[in-house]
Amino acid sequence: MPRKIKSSGSRKIDGMPRLVREGQRTRLVVGGKPFVALGGEVQNSSASDAEYMAGVWRRLAAMHYNTVLAPVYWELVEPAEGRFDFSLVRSMIAGARAQGLRLILLWFGTWKNGESTYTPAWIKRDLKRFPRGQTEPGRNTRAVSAFSQACLAADARAFAVLMRFLRADDRHHTVIMVQVENEAGFLGAARDRCAAADRAFESPLPKRLAAAMVAQRETLHPDIQRAWSDAGGRETGTWREVFGAAAEEIFMAWHVAEYIENVAAAGKAEYPLPMFVNAWLNYGEERPGSGGTQPGVYPSGGPVARMHDIWRIAAPSIDAFAPDIYSPWFKEICRDFVRNGNVLIIPECKAQTAAAHVFWAVAEHNACCFAPFGIDRPHPWGPSIPSEAPGLADSYRMLADMLPILAPHLGTPRVRGILQSGDERDTLTVGGLTVEIDYERKLADAIAPACGLIAITGANEAYVAGRGFSARFIRPADSREQIDILLAESGDFVRGRWKPRMRLNGDDTCGKWIQLKFLEAPEARRGVLYTHA
Ligand code: DGJ
Predict the structure, then answer these.
(1) pTM over 0.85
(2) DSSP 171-211
(3) What is the mean pLDDT of residues 134-140?
(4) What are the φ and ψ backbone dihedral angles of 345, each rounded to 5 degrees?
(5) Ligand 1: residues within 6 Å at CB?
(6) 295 — phi, psi (to 5°)?
(7) Of 164, 171, 6, nearest to 89 (Cα)?
(8) Using CA positions, which residue lies closest to atom 9 of ligand 1?
(9) Mean of the pLDDT values across residues 63-67?
């Protein structure tokens, strides 16, 4: 267990960023108002160069980003044990704040992509005090073991000192959330095989886990339910006895999550910002649900969708589990990550398709953060991970301008996202109305598929925004009434209000279509609907 750090976090802080649960939806509230982080994550090493970052803040603010996700490196924050240096963090906060940007800090501590490459040299060099995880007995990895109590204590202390430092920001709330670690879990095998891990694996299942699983039996992820019942549905026994073939991943999830719980709790005691963990996903090109890759190929025990229930039990200080989405299955992954009330935070995704995907994440799933990865400079691996996000500035501008109108309805059935993924047509229900979506072209393989949103904001009032589709409200199957357009107009959202431009009729609606056929920048329409026999 980490050394208990005296908390200084008892004073009430006005406008503290919070994730607020309201019925079925969760909202990020900053300074008392709902906030959607329209962000971008910088490349891994960018934030170590304050001078370079000065240009990044300016550029991203000009491109309508409202938030930047940037790492804080343990190796630079605590270069010698117990000696802390927050100059880079201080300059990040000042640089972001000067441009009106918010920050989500990423704590690169014990884990970064399943390894411990960001631990300070005094940890890397001391394998005796900070033992490594092992893929087989005696074979060390580059990752400190999740069973290293000394590393846990050191990480929790460093993180707590960072969070205490961030209290200086409590009047401005430039920093709105923190990602604790990065893509945690065990790489190279399904579980750690160091001696401490072997002992724990042969021990009985923790009573707390067993009790919570029994209480949550009905809502557990189907993969966990299946593993549990295939192994006989026991409530006691070793990990293998209770979970059979899935035991190793579940075991790692529990121990990695417990470790991170201790780190997060130590930080929250100092300054209770919302905290999340991100996942290296268990499917690449393969469709989610098809089995995916094997634990150990991705970090075993990391917060992939099927491990969320285990993580939730082990790590109550973690507010959300966030997917890093580089696979083509954007819609499926979002769906998997909102299960059991998880609020959607996308800290990393492909820049190339971000302009379209942001509409889906925000409108369909009430995401409170969306961020393509590596948007500040070309990726060191070359063009296989593009850093250009074509059209994203336009999408961000539209969503930000629209937010005051949209916010009360986000996370309710009155808002739906639109994202073309193959079909030429879609039918969806929004605000109790049925809508037919007619995509302008077959764009399934295009870099920028048709995208947008529909919001029903009043009795007969609809806003439709996006590009590459037309929308037609149609009579529900059980009704004799028809729905048509009484009034349609193009326009803009100016300081949170709708400013109409052109009154649309004739070829522009044919009495029933709201058309956004152009594929360049997203546009917005407001429609007033009426029904008649
Ligand atoms: C996922 C990691 O979380 C990021 O830090 C980065 O390494 C990307 N993968 C790939 O560039």
Answers:
(1) yes
(2) TT--EEEEEEEES-SB-SSSS--SHHHHHHHTSBPPHHHHH
(3) 98
(4) -130, 120
(5) 44, 113, 182-183, 324, 348, 373, 385
(6) -60, 135
(7) 164
(8) 113
(9) 98
